[in-house]
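A favour, since you know our structure tokens better than I do. Just paste the record in under my message, thanks.
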Amino acid sequence: MSSPFDSNKPIFLQVRELIEDQIVNDQLKEGDQAPSTNQLVSFYKINHATVSKGITQLVDEGILFKKRGIGMFVAEGAKKTLVNQRKKSFVDNYVVGLVQEAKKLGISQEEIIELIKNAKGSDT
């Protein structure tokens, strides 16, 4: 069986992103119990320390919180925090480069908007 993880990215980051995706997609809601480290280790057949590193980052950032003896839970405001982080990342990783390249090519703001609206697979 092949691994569901991308070999080009550290697995702890992928575990973290898996949980983040579940929160952003409303599979895990604020107050819901998150999968335990042991569940993730068992399901994905990966090292406990690797899973713990990803989970610890989410706890440190206030996305998850621990209830001693019970488990990890999704913190209040976690989805909003993650969506805001991802929007900023989207702008930094995609929009800034798009605007810079459009400027080099002499594409106006209006043309960019029209290109986006007409892009294949666009829902707008």
Q: What stands out?
A: Residues 78-105 form the longest helix (28 residues).
